[in-house]
Fold:
Amino acid sequence: MGMTRNVGLFTALGYKGKGPFLTFILHRIGGLGMAIFVTMHILASFLSGDIGQFLNGIYEHWLFQVFVYFCALFHIVNGLRITLLDLWPNLIEYQREAIWIEWAVFLPIFALSVVVLIQTAGG
Amino acid sequence: MGASKPRTLPLNKRGLNFEMLMWMYTRLSALGMYLFMFIALIGALYMGARYQMSLSDLMRWLFMPNVAHVEQVTTVQDVDAWATVFWRLVASGMYLLATSHGVHGLVAIADDYIVSASGRKIVRFLSIVMMISMVLIGLYIIWQEALLKLMGGAQ
Structure:
């Protein structure tokens, strides 16, 4: 079934689905971000030496940490919503409310951690 | 819509194919990772995270309970309690769940944009190669210190 569908990348990017679509695409970006950058970080720890230090230097910069932290935290909070709603399908009726709750959980934790990250970077 | 047949079959009429199993596995491995994070949270608070760690340090430890995320980056003085076999096992479990969950996620994303059968085969092959090599590298990093200690003790 999936084999016969033929939607190009740009058609897919042009789709406007509001709240649920925003979480869907951020979930992808978060997952991809973690897959790419955590892999880099693990390889850097494994290689150490000059290449490792160079990669980890980027990874440990506070700006980059804010980005990776966004990827991870959003994926974690949104993933919990997906898991709960998929395992209890009757709740899917309240998907939009669940997404509002999700943002209410995500934003304070993310904001607080960004403040801490910037404070730590400032000394 | 109202009169048409529902588009989803009830559970007992759906076959259990590989995609369905992996769909389920993605959810269950996520639950498993939440459990490991919860264990890491309780453990960190028990080991004194309240006084010795910032919020982002704690989050980093929950993400991967590896001792490297405690020494050098936090003010924790004695890291022995954070480097036990128990925490290495939790880290390994977390890592295995995360890798399998993540590689399946990458394949799912690639399948949305790569529609040719041969392209998908190549992606699957590369994913499996990447998964196996990253699992070996990651487990080596988690256990290397403990292994060195063990080998040093044996000599």
Observations:
- The CA atoms of residues 125 and 131 of chain B lie 10 Å apart.
